[in-house]
Amino acid sequence: MFTARRWWERRGLQIGLLGIVIGGAWVLRQTQGALLIEVYEGITRPFQMLQTASAPEERSGDTPKVLELQTRIQDLENQNKKLKQLLSYVEKQPLSARPIPARVVGRSADNWWQQVTLNRGAIAGIKEGYVVKADGGLVGLVESVTPNTSRVLLISDLKSQVGVTVTRTGAKGVLRGDASADAVLEFYEKVPNVKPGDLVATSTYSQKFPSGLAVGKVKSLDLKKLPASVAKVELFPPIRSLDWVAVYPKPENVEPEKPTSENTQLEKTN
């Protein structure tokens, strides 16, 4: 009796654990693991609920799709604002002289400062020689047209030449593109009456552009330059970031003033 009791004390725990294992295995076999799955789900459910609660915040945050939509909305809002400003400007013009609004849709890296392509052409009434303006003043000249597009030679192009005048003093010269946001003004006076900050506009001698169109302002002067003095001019129109522009018919019946010996070349080049 004493021996059996001692044996039970030694082996009872092992036998009990073995019974639990065998019983658990039988239950798993009978339920095909359903009980174990329920136990697992009961343990992990609180963590899943926390994860699910945080998911909407993550989805409403910086996910790629949301960022894409936000970027698109912001772009459309900016375009709408610019278009409204342009249309408001157009409506203020006399009906007979209202420009044609157009958007820049083509521009390549290797001729960024030379030309742009507009999304309107002959069907909209645009022709070669039409004048292109933007906020700030003169942008360029339409040099070719298709039914639905127009190509514009920018005043920042190295080939561009525009007859201009310094509005404060009337000093005249030729503005040449410099493939940048600045241009070079070559004067026809050896020592022109000009200083930094003076405003520059198209002159009455130009046969390609109407007079008085804003172009830019003088940044610096080089009065020792040969054969003529020159100035660096900061262009007013945002040439580097053109978007919406206004296209005007080319000036007709422009009769420039009688040229003097110092501006004969200016009339020929413009």
Task: Determine the number of helices (DSSP H or I, runs of at least 4 residues).
Answer: 4
Radius of gyration: 39 Å
Q: Globular, elongated, flat, extended or rod-shaped: what is the shape?
A: elongated
Order of strands across the biggest sheet? 1-2-5-4-3-12
Low-pLDDT runs: 253-270
Strand proportion: 25-35%
**How many DSSP-defined strands?**
12
Percentage of helical residues? Answer: 25-40%
Report on the structure:
The protein has helices at residues 2-31, 34-59, 64-92, 264-269; strands at 100-106, 115-118, 131-134, 137-145, 150-154, 161-166, 172-177, 182-187, 199-202, 214-222, 230-235, 244-248. A hairpin with a 4-residue loop joins strand 7 (172-177) and strand 8. The protein is elongated and about 130 Å long. It is of the alpha+beta class. The strands form two sheets. Strands 1-2-5-4-3-12 form a six-stranded antiparallel β-barrel. A six-stranded antiparallel β-barrel has the order 6-7-8-11-10-9. The termini are far apart. It is built from four helices and twelve strands; from the N terminus they run αααββββββββββββα. Mean pLDDT is 76; it is low at 253-270.
